[in-house]
Design a protein that fits this description.
The chain is of the alpha+beta class. It has 3 helices and 6 strands; from the N terminus they run ββββαββαα. 20% of the residues lie in helices and 27% in strands.
Length: 104
């Protein structure tokens, strides 16, 4: 995914397929590239369990790989900045930094 960030006062988000653009306060271009191998490593490390609510793949939830510190707030795609969250927790977290999640 490619993030384009430009000088505008209000955020403007658009989505077309797998190409994401975000227009925010500074001129930065960030590319996110979490490989399938890296996703699998994170899911295995977290034992296929949501790190917020504790539900796992056997509970029938969709599991996703989430950035602990969001990319738009300076987070990287390093495996130490990734965690497993279920669909519901990931949508609830959105682009927030949850400090209790950073200590894991």
């Amino acid at each position: 995914m490619i993030w384009h960030v430009k000088n505008y006062s209000q955020p403007n988000y658009s989505r077309t397929g797998y190409h994401y653009e975000s227009i925010i306060s500074e001129s930065i271009i960030r590319k996110r590239d979490i490989t399938l191998t890296k996703r699998t490593l994170v899911l295995e490390r977290d034992n296929y369990t949501c790190q917020m609510c504790g539900r796992d793949r056997y509970d029938g939830v969709k599991l996703e790989v989430d950035h602990i510190i969001p990319v738009l707030k300076g987070g990287s795609d390093d495996i130490s900045n990734l965690q497993t969250l279920c669909f519901d927790c990931n949508r609830g977290k959105s682009d927030k930094i949850l400090h209790n999640q950073m200590n894991k």
